[in-house]
Design brief:
Number of domains: 1
InterPro entries: DUF4504
Pfam families: DUF4504 (PF14953)
Structural class: alpha+beta
Distance between the termini: 50 Å
Radius of gyration: 21 Å
Shape: globular
Number of helices: 11
Order of helices and strands: HHEHHEEHEEHEHHEHEEHHE
Length: about 325
């Protein structure tokens, strides 16, 4: 069998796995039971993310915010996927070679990460002191969110966590329960989880929360932080104008055009007032974000044998100001 014919067979199998109606007919499921916890739709989303978004390194990490198996079952199933003969036969192993890491922040925050790309991001952010991020305080006590006056406080917390994470990745860890180690890493201090999840999601605008205090750096630590969980469950985003910045895949290539694949690659929000009060900083950060994502996308698209699209679309749209539940 020629390489081109063999790769066509691989494409056909991938098409089956990305189709709600046919994925169970794929060779991957010969004698393999789909792990309990997936729905047909969430399986297609998961395999798309596993193989393409994370596997090809378009994003460094991806939040699994759709139905999947419980943590331990998911980890075991991912190991089976990594060893799939569809991706690891002799002629195609290098084409689909990637190392996926599972990261647990809490019971509702699971991430899949591409080890190589994640380490590259960590190195860049540590070397430039997180200059490509803007922290916005969304404490409920505020009439509206504001530019955080203690940006360095959050950067120092992220620095400690990412230095620890880099060591875990370099040591060969495949599954990282980061939530178990945060208190030790931060020496008894707490971190507002949307800061950390926002970094993993690659949001250039990250929401922080000063609780009932004047500044985020004044939030208590140790046994004195009982009120933080209550305060941190609330924010001041629900009654203000927000912009949503989204990145979508477009011009899906054959043979994947007929499949109902996820188009949204990434989205985040930011308060409209930043466009006037901090316009230069905002424009710079968004431009750097777009350039970084495009560079990674183009590199992956040029090198990858598995290619869904050759084009990304960047959009900014205003959200309604009566949204009651803003995802951070």
């Amino acid at each position: 069998m020629s390489v081109s014919t063999e790769f066509l067979t691989i494409q056909e199998e991938i098409c089956k796995l990305l189709c709600v109606k046919s994925f169970r007919k794929s060779k991957l499921f010969d004698g393999l039971k789909l792990a309990k916890g997936f729905t047909s739709q969430s399986w297609v989303q998961f395999y798309h993310d596993f193989l393409y978004i994370i596997g090809q390194g378009i994003r460094s990490s991806l939040l699994i915010d759709y139905p999947v198996p419980e943590w331990e079952d998911l980890i075991n199933f991912i190991e089976i996927l990594k060893k799939s003969t569809i991706l690891n036969n002799n002629n195609n192993a290098e084409k689909f070679k990637f190392e996926i890491i599972s990261i647990h922040l809490d019971d509702f925050l699971y991430f899949l990460s591409n080890k190589t790309v994640l380490l590259e991001r960590i190195q860049i952010d540590l070397s430039n002191n997180f200059e490509n991020y803007l922290f916005i305080d969304v404490s409920q006590k505020l009439n509206q969110p504001k530019y955080c006056e203690t940006q360095d406080y959050h950067k120092n917390q992220l620095k400690l966590i990412l230095e620890y994470l880099a060591e875990k990745l370099k040591s060969g860890s495949k599954e990282i329960l980061l939530d178990k180690d945060l208190e030790v890493i931060l020496k008894g201090n707490r971190i507002y989880l949307p800061i950390l999840s926002g970094w993993f999601c690659e949001y250039p605008i990250i929401y922080c929360n000063s609780s009932r205090y004047t500044q985020c750096s004044q939030c208590p630590s140790g046994d004195n932080c009982n009120d933080l969980d209550t305060d941190w469950n609330e924010n001041s985003l629900s009654s203000i104008e927000l912009q949503r910045y989204s990145v979508r895949q477009c011009n899906i290539s054959t043979p994947y055009q007929s499949l109902q694949l996820p188009k949204l690659l990434l989205s985040f929000t930011y308060p409209v007032f930043l466009e006037t009060s901090h316009k230069d900083i905002l424009d710079s950060i968004l431009n750097k974000f777009q350039k970084s994502l495009l560079n990674r996308f183009n590199q992956c698209s040029n090198e990858s044998q598995f290619k869904l699209t050759n084009q990304l679309e960047f959009n900014i749209e205003k959200l309604s100001n009566d949204i009651s539940n803003i995802r951070l």
